[in-house]
Amino acid sequence: MEQAAAEGAEEPASSSAFRDVDAHPVPPRRPQQANGKARAEAPAEVDLFGPAPTPAAPEERKFYQSPYRRNAPSSRSAPKPPPPSATRTLVPASASAVQSSTQHKTRGNEAVKLGQYGDAEGHYSAAISCLPEGHILLIPLYNNRALARLKTGEYKAAEADAGTVLTLVEAVGGLDARFGDGGRIQAGDGAGVVDLGEGLLKAWRRRAEALEGREQWAEARRLWEKVSGAGWARAQDRTEAARAAGRCRQMLAPKPAPTAAPPKPKPAAPPKLRPAALISADSARVAELRKAAEDAEAEDAARADLKDTVDARLLAWKKGKEANVRALIASLDTVLWPELGPALKVDMKDLLTPGQVKVKYMKAIGRLHPDKLNASNTTLEQRMIANGVFGTLNEAYNAFVTSGK
């Protein structure tokens, strides 16, 4: 009995939770005092019938995280494929049309190499007529015809051809990077590749040269600046375009007032002749006049025989460009004789400004002036041709000065 009581006295207070609720209560025994360290290390009592204790949060979680994000599975979106390249819309043409156009273009290129720019223009026009409107092969054809027209002094028509090229390039999308072809388009039917970048540069150059020929300096400068700023152009082309733009800026600058020419010295009075000397001079003069009259009669007869041949040659040279002094000067080698024609040959690029036109005009009439040509250095037919060319150039230059172009 005492042993049982002793065993009951040593039962810890926490065992009261397991006693039946109808049993008599047992007065609690005062626990023995222990040192502070022991009390601090004593485990906390656990209520077995209470709610489960909440575990402490981990030490590393020191910030708030939404429950919707806490255990959400990580998902990585798949990379989007690159957008497909855009497709150019090209005007189709039959194989026979492309072949016929190519043949005419080849003939035009051969004529340009021979300097026959009028014939070249006709061949290029025939090549253009073979293709439908808006076809990609029209780009090099219009550029080539613009060059031929520049050589013959048809500046307005050359400007129109270059403008058509710009419209065609824009119609097929230009140099837009969306197409992914670098501006090089396969024409099809064995016609090769059309380079839009090259076609655009040539059109800018042709149009700028034509505008300079018409003395529209502001618009010409704008186009030259486009060529000089084109990143795909060759360094040499950009340098030449920059110089041409500077030339246009100089023409737009105000011109200084002209200075008065110094007065010409008066000619010296001829010496007075004695009467005997006068008689001798008169006799010699009469003989000279008689011989000159005989020579003139013989020359008039020869002129009548040569008139039809000379008129036909002059008409072939000046037909269609009677008032175009630039075209007349640039084609002098086609009407003059071989000894003189090459010396006066001028390229159209040397006749862009009024100053250049004046210099070349003065040089030409200086060589063709009747005082410079006589029976000792030319034939009668050559003098007749030179007189006709001299008169035509004078009329054309007067019209050029009057119009201010």
From TrEMBL:
One GO cellular component assignment for this chain's record is: vesicle
Q: Which residue intervals are annotated with compositional bias (Pro residues) in the record?
A: 255-273
Entry-linked SUPFAM superfamilies: Chaperone J-domain, TPR-like
Q: Which GO terms describe its biological process?
A: clathrin coat disassembly; clathrin-dependent endocytosis
Q: Where is this region: Disordered?
A: 1-110, 253-273
Q: Which Gene Ontology molecular-function terms are recorded?
A: clathrin binding
SMART domains xrefs: TPR
Low complexity bias: start-end ranges: 1-17, 66-78
Which PANTHER family would you find in this protein's record?
Answer: AUXILIN/CYCLIN G-ASSOCIATED KINASE-RELATED, J DOMAIN-CONTAINING PROTEIN
What is this protein called in UniProt?
A: J domain-containing protein
Q: What is the lineage of its organism?
A: Eukaryota, Fungi, Dikarya, Basidiomycota, Agaricomycotina
